[in-house]
Amino acid sequence: MAVLVFAEQRKGKMPKVAFEAVSQGRRIADRRGDSLHVCLIGDNVSHLSDDITAYGGDDILIYDSVDLSDYQTEAYAAVLVSAVNEVGAKLVIMGHTLMVRDLAPRVAEEIGAGLVSDCTAMETDEDVISFIRPMYAGKVFAKVTVGTDVALCTIRPNNFSIAEKPGKGKQRTLDCEIPEIRARTTGMEVRGGDRPELTEADIIVSGGRGLGGAEGFGVVEEVADILGAAVGASRAAVDAGWRSQQYQVGQTGKVVTPDLYVACGISGAAQHMAGMSASRCIVAINKDPDANMMKVADLSIEGDLYKILSELSDQIKNGAE
Amino acid sequence: MNIVVCIKQTFDTEAKIALTDGGEIDDRSVIKIVNPYDEYAVEEAIRLKERHGGEVTAVTVGAEDSRQALQHCLAMGVDRAVLVTDPLVQSPDGHTYAVILAALLRTMEYDLILCGRESIDTGDGQVPSRLAQILDLPQINVVSHLEIENGTVRATRDIEGGSEHVESSRPCVISVQKGINEVRYPSLRLIMRAKKMPIDSYSLEDLTLTTDDVKPFLGVEAYIFPETRKAGVRLRGEPADVVTQLIGYLRDEYRIL
Predict the structure, then answer these.
(1) Could you give the 3-state DSSP secondary structure of residue A165?
(2) Do the Cβ atoms of B224 and A110 come within 8 Å?
(3) Where are the beta strands (DSSP E) in chain B?
(4) N or C: which end of chain B has fewer CB within 10 A?
(5) pLDDT tens profile B59-87
(6) Could you tell me the pLDDT band of residue A320, with boundaries at 50, 70 and 90?
(7) 8 Å CB contact of A115 and B217
(8) ipTM attached to this prediction
């Protein structure tokens, strides 16, 4: 049974979750005695195949064309369907990113396959693979099986470990007929700053209503930058206009699983907890000792946010010197 | 320009999840709402209608009580509402919904299909792309800004760390992101009026679908509740002192810093 991983890249860079997908593909293939095929789509992307081999790729399918330089749904869907057929894949693993969220359901429908989105774990026994995925933004998890011949799944970033384990690394450059593209990407804007992407960050410093205003995020950003962390926000902070939607963590925002989540002035409403409660370590800083977040945090501090955050940035800076 | 908005009724975001004795998600005594992302889609459709004219139809697939969700859309200002409901639809997944919506849409005239980016219950986000594939239409997902000019759709969609501009011909399927607009709250008068408006109802047979056509691809074997987190250590003292303790814990116990 062939396992296929779609290794997403943009502008020649693969996100961390693409490596997580390759590593998970390797583990499943090893457990079942299967081969691991990896599909790479883009323009001038063959240099990424060495990286993929290091994490277990046996057979790397490279679709390299100037027409594939930007992500275009219809083009990428045609290529991925062709790759699935090429290797006779029975299991397809992808990272749960915005590109794949757009792409995977279209591909799944075209090949008549079930797609399990946003998996946080997989269980394999004999012939059956079960997928664990959150529902109601993580208030409950479902153990899901796929009833179709081919199963597709997307994995949540930061939930599957990356392990170096060299594969056979055979490279093949393939062609695929690209259909007429009716919805075309015409440009891309990258937000400034070097902060990591929220869903992939190891550390997140997040602010809520307790910051008292948009300017309160200054000190949150300062601490985030010292820690190399991403900045998050609660729904209250986003709805108040202090921070744009891209920063929202929770049921109607992003679901995150960092090693460390520092909640600053966030009360801990159910919809927010749903988005971050699987973090490895939660630190709550709040002036209200009875706030829900203070009751679930691994480490909690009652007090003035600003004093604590500025003390935190001072001590980390001094410690680093 | 005629717009169809696909909506779903979901649990309120603050709802507690419990299981029935049979091990299914218990939807009794839960407040139900229009899926928040779908509400943005309804709002966007109404705004496009106000600018370009035409008619907006809200459609949903669900149980009889989904009528409430459609009434909310009527109160917001959609012109027509359609419910597909059938006891033969069992444990639907994204594929099931897309097949039914596609069959319904084939009976309608439209220039644009709007959806929310995902429903907050399953969080799958598969219906818009699957629907586009079945109807052989282009798609743009997670749209935070939308403009339509001379038959061309111009959209901005979110990507990690930025955004992309996409242009598409019409008709196409668009799923919207929170933040694309601010949703209106209908007045009591509009809410009362909406209660009297008709809702068209279809069964699978009406859409010439069989139970085989709508058979889900996925099956849920079990539901598992996450371990509840317990309160950890409360750090006490002056700011300088608690921060020293905090850094100590993070470094020595959690090996993070």
Answers:
(1) coil
(2) no
(3) 3-7, 9-11, 32-34, 56-61, 80-84, 112-116, 139-149, 152-159, 162-169, 173-176, 200-202, 218-224, 233-235
(4) C
(5) 999 999 999 999 999 999 999 999 999 99
(6) low
(7) yes
(8) 0.95
Statement: the pTM of the whole predicted model exceeds 0.95:
no
A24 lies within 8 A of chain B by CB: no
CB A27 within 8 A of CB A138: no
- Residue in chain A nearest B169 by alpha carbon: A182
| H helical segments located in chain B | 36-52, 67-76, 94-105, 127-134, 188-195, 239-248
Please tell me the distance from the alpha carbon of residue B73 to that of residue B45, in angstroms, as a whole number.
11
Burial of A243 (0-12, 13-18, 19+ CB in 10 A): buried
| Cβ–Cβ contact A317 with B under 8 A | no
Residues 218-257 of A with CB under 8 A from B: 227, 238, 244-246, 248, 251-253
Q: Is B91 exposed, middle or buried (0-12, 13-18, 19+ CB in 10 A)?
A: exposed
Q: Give pLDDT tens digits for B132-153.
A: 999 999 999 999 999 999 889 9
Is A144 close to B219, i.e. CB distance below 8 A? Answer: yes
How distant is the Cα of A148 from the closest Cα of chain B, in angstroms?
6
Q: Which chain A residues are closer than 8 Å to B170 by Cβ?
A: none
- Segment B182-235, tens digit of pLDDT: 999 999 999 999 999 999 999 999 999 999 999 999 999 999 999 888 889 999
- What is the rounded distance in angstroms from the CA atom of residue B155 to the CA atom of residue B136? 19
CB contact under 8 A, B160 and A98: yes
φ/ψ (deg, to 5) at A320: -75, -20
**CB atoms B98 and A114 under 8 Å:** no
Could you tell me which chain B residue has the CA closest to the CA of A241? B179
